[in-house]
Amino acid sequence: MTKIAVLLISLSVVCSEVIAQTVAEPQNTPAEWAKPYPPFRVAGNLYYVGTYDLACYLVTTPQGNILINTGLAASAPLIKSNIEALGFKFPDTKILLTTQAHYDHLGAMAAIKKVTGSRMMVDEKDAEVMESGGKSDYALGGQAPTYEPLHADRLLRDGDTIRLGDTELVMLHHPGHTKGSCSYLFTVKDDRRSYRVLIANMPTIVTEKGFSEIPEYPEIAKDYAYTLEAMQKLTFDLWLSSHASQFGLHRKYKPGQRYNPSAFMDRKGYDAALSSLQKEYLNKTQGK
Predict the structure, then answer these.
(1) What is the pLDDT of residues 70-93, one digit of tens each?
(2) Can you tell me the distance from the alpha carbon of 51 to that of 272, in angstroms, rounded to the nearest whole number?
(3) How far apart are CA 242 and CA 96, in angstroms?
(4) Among 3.60.15.10, 2.60.40.2250, 3.20.20.210, 3.40.50.300, what is the CATH number of 27-285?
(5) How confident is the model over 174-178, as a mean pLDDT?
(6) Fewer beta carbons below 10 Å: N end or C end of the chain?
(7) What is the maximum alpha-carbon separation in the chain?
(8) Is the pLDDT reported for residue 18 higher than 50?
């Protein structure tokens, strides 16, 4: 082997190590974010495959499956295991979606995309942040990516439909938490009835700065106001969200319980959560 060949190989190794080192996922995260949780059937062809608090969802169809969110980077094996425990094949994952471009929902997305060859679809307003690995996020960005950068195979706009097999999901643009935060509305059915499902990205405020102090996101106050109003008008049968704690998963369901979609029929809880977030928004805009 020539000296030049050795040098090129060494340079390649160094470059790979540098690239790997650039991803700096925060380490002081809640234990519940990484804690394993048994997967279960929510309703019809919708399943929970996430961790104790970071919600990930599998929507199955005869033509393949849709995975929404992935949790932290280390959660990839757990999600694969959860999907297989339900009797589904991991390579059958055809479409990847997210509710927001933060590391706690996209941490394992690049790894899963590489293994499954799935198409990544994202709200167009979060595409830039996702391609930077979270580095350009107005609140959680910094000097290094917090997750492996991803390129979007399809950019989604408010009201766009994601189709796979006999299932259609409508993407709802709900900005504020991130510029391209979004929710999904779709119908599932079992042998008794159909259910209109909302997977909601709740508009929590992630920045400690005043809205007027964020030049990277001048529309933030307006976006939060829009999202809060839009979400109040939605109609659905069941609702879930990006974090299990946001929709009271552990109060509504215990591992091993029988199939019971009605446990997630909770309009009162949804309205109460939005009311609390509305107060948080008003306090923020009024400087309290």
Answers:
(1) 999 999 999 999 999 999 999 999
(2) 24
(3) 15
(4) 3.60.15.10
(5) 98
(6) N
(7) 71
(8) no
| Distances 67 to 94, 158, 174, 218 between C-alpha atoms, Å | 8, 19, 19, 32
Q: What's the average model confidence in pLDDT over 264-280?
A: 98
Instruction: Based on DSSP, count helices (H) and strands (E) in the chain, helices before strands.
Output: 8, 12
**Using alpha carbons only, what angle is made at residue 166 by residues 113 and 115, rounded to the nearest 5 degrees?**
15
Mean pLDDT, to the nearest integer, of 8-17? Answer: 32
* Cβ burial 10-34 (10 Å sphere, 16+ → b, else e): eeeeeeeeeeeeebbbeeeeeeebb
| DSSP result, 168-237 | EEEEEE--SSSTT-EEEEEEEE-SS-EEEEEEE-------SS-GGG-TT-TTHHHHHHHHHHHHHT---S
Q: Which helix (H) or strand (E) holds 66?
A: strand 64-68
Residue 287 has pLDDT above 80, yes or no: no
- DSSP letter assigned to residue 89: -
3-state secondary structure string, 135-165? CCCCCCCCCCCCCCCCCCCEEECCCCEEEEC
Task: Output the pLDDT for position 288.
Answer: 58
Cα torsion through 252, 97, 208, 75, rounded to 10: 70
Taking the C-alpha atoms of residue 50 and residue 87, their distance in angstroms, rounded to an integer, is 16
* pLDDT bracket for residue 96 (50, 70, 90): very high
- The reported pTM is 0.92
